[in-house]
Design goal:
13 helices
């Protein structure tokens, strides 16, 4: 089973991505949380085009991605888990937990370091939040993210299977917690004790800076509670909160070319710093 997943990693990941994307789109149609402020067709076209471009850039620039690096590390004996003789199930479980924490800190840094924020703003500029927002990232941010993941994999030395499972889980959780989905309050309250829910993450996309720079988790909710970056609800309520960035409440974020050009417009200006 392990070798099958490793051999067929790309089609399996694409298939799971498509299934989760379509499932969240269907649930959003059945139980929407918020009314949209922008046209869906143009937003979805732009956001999904970014997904295609991101995937193409990664394939062109990285002959070996994170799972492949994990295989190389295993052969060379690099990384913490390659020095320890643990059961594979324990290694996979702990690797997923640690990798999720490292992605939390990557997200924090993308808000705190100006050059990283310049690229991450493309994600936050979306004036609606739904399942496609979960994959809306500038290609340069994806490249930086892949470099960060490779460094983490080399240091940690997780099994390739753990890396594959984590990346599938991360992508699925990102689509789920960005979904414009109204979960029952009791379900949300129970789920957010363990994982990031749509209501929890939506706070992070508020135009208010004190909310934008909170709730950084993508999968496990423990990190925001542990590192004191948790805000339970938006000040204005989910129905009335304004999504996006205050300086970009225009039709611009709907455009693919606008989104690709955004980081280079004010990259060196001090007023963009946090």
């Amino acid at each position: 089973m392990t070798s099958f997943i490793q051999i067929h990693e790309a089609p399996l990941r694409l298939g799971i991505f498509a299934i989760v994307l379509l499932a969240m789109m269907a649930l959003e149609a059945l139980r929407p949380k918020r009314d949209r402020v922008m046209t869906r067709r143009r937003r979805w076209t732009s956001n999904l085009a970014l997904v295609f471009i991101d995937g193409l850039v990664v394939r062109l620039l990285f002959p070996v991605v994170a799972a492949g690096v994990a295989m190389i590390a295993a052969r060379k004996g690099w990384g913490l888990f390659n020095w320890l003789d643990w059961p594979i199930w324990a290694e996979i479980l702990l690797s997923i937990i640690v990798l999720d924490m490292l992605i939390y800190w990557q997200h924090v840094l993308s808000h705190r370091i100006p050059i990283f924020w310049a690229f991450h703003k493309v994600h936050h500029a979306d004036r609606d939040i739904d399942v496609t927002t979960g994959s809306r990232f500038h290609p340069a941010e994806i490249v930086l993210s892949m470099v960060y993941k490779i460094i983490c994999v080399l240091a940690l030395g997780p099994a390739a299977m753990a890396v594959i499972l984590f990346e599938v889980l991360l992508n699925a959780c990102a689509m789920f917690n960005h979904a414009n989905l109204a979960l029952p309050k009791r379900v949300d309250a129970r789920l957010r004790k363990f994982i990031v829910t749509p209501d929890m993450h939506r706070v992070h996309h508020s135009v208010l800076p004190e909310e934008t720079h909170q709730n950084f988790g993508f999968c496990l909710s423990i990190w925001d509670n542990l590192f004191r970056s948790y805000t339970a609800q938006p000040r204005a309520g989910h129905a009335d909160m304004t999504i996006g960035l205050p300086e970009y409440q225009t039709p611009g974020p709907n455009s693919l070319t606008w989104s690709l050009a955004l980081p280079f417009r004010r990259l060196l200006k001090l007023e963009d710093r946090i």
